[in-house]
């Protein structure tokens, strides 16, 4: 399990080679405010963005087939409109 939080970026463009976005890949990264996921990513594993407390914006294409458990848990600033696309499991 690799955590990429050390990047310290405010906006994250998930690289194409990051397939899938692994378990806890960006866990507890308070500096991330926006995430842009490319169409090549089809899986986001458990807790990938859990406790990214500053995360407000997320672009995730419709090609994503799987969201793990608690992917966005603790991301209280994330816009609520995103929840409709991903389902409740991603936020628990």
Task: Describe it.
- The chain is mostly beta strands and 92 residues long.
- The chain has one domain (1-92): Leucine-rich repeat, LRR (right-handed beta-alpha superhelix).
- Helix content is 7%, strand content 14%.
- Strands 1-2-4 form a three-stranded parallel sheet, with no helix packed on it.
List the helices and strands and how they pair.
Layout: E1 11-13, E2 34-36, E3 43-44, E4 57-59, E5 66-67, H1 81-86
Parallel strand pairs: 1-2, 2-4, 3-5
Keywords:
92 residues; mainly beta; Leucine-rich repeat, LRR (right-handed beta-alpha superhelix); three-stranded parallel beta sheet; two-stranded parallel sheet; 1 helix; 7% helix
Radius of gyration: 11 Å
Quote the average pLDDT: 77
Individual helix count:
1
Query: How many beta-strand runs?
Result: 5
The run of helices and strands is: EEEEEH
Summarize the structure.
With 92 residues, the chain is mainly beta. Helix content is 7%, strand content 14%.
